[in-house]
Here is the input.
Amino acid sequence: MTETVTSKDGTLISYLKVGEGPGIIILHGAMESAYSHIELARALSDSFTVYLPDRRGRGRSGPYGLDFSTQKEVEDLDALLSKTDSHFVMGVSAGAIVALNASLELKAIHKAIIFEPPLMTDNLISADWMDRYDREISAGKVAAALVTGMLGSQMGPPVLHRMPRWFLTAMTKLMMTLEGSSDGSDGPIPMKVLAPTLHYDVQLANEMEGKQKDLLSAIDINVLLLGGSLSPPYLKAAMDTLEKLIPNSRRVEFAGFHHGLTGNKNRGGHPETVASEIKSFLAQV
Here is the structure.
């Protein structure tokens, strides 16, 4: 079921609703949409009502706006929490940055699940590649931009990073062709439609840099930290930072899984495994 809520600035946020029980909102990550966690939602649906928003700028949700910031996404989440009377939030990757900021600001959140936010820690990664990405998007070179984003964010198996860029670009063009011509307004959003959104998720990571210590140490709710053993080093370092700074946190690392763990199976996810850990955490008093 698809519903909508209006954020503080008037932006319409569209979301899917699955299951019955206490509410949990799942904020997807970069190059994702509401449908990216539909299988996780179904795995949780016997115990929870799961709300899957298209974060602004995607799907049926409204645009980013000229004054886009992390605060805007926190306000979007606040509106959804209020409408659904939910008290649990899960943030995945860039969505986890929103969830962390919201956990400090929004008293409606009683527990949070955080999966591998892209924090700029220990100089293990930078966003210098974004200038090239933006130029390629502006020039309509979407496949080339997606390759730049994949390499810059250190995503994909290590073997891909040893392949020539021209080959990766050709393969990405083929994958985009196989996705078809859907605009994502009523289902999964294709890569070519999602591509421009990566700019804004990197903005979230940049805004988070420099305020991590003060923000994270002030979070006073129970937090479950989830990650995969095969994820890039900078994401594992981010989880180390979260575990050290968030007072009431517990960390679970899933052996043999990577950054796509929470997503649908066709993207390398294992939703049932993640759902089991979430249910156990949320059942604790």
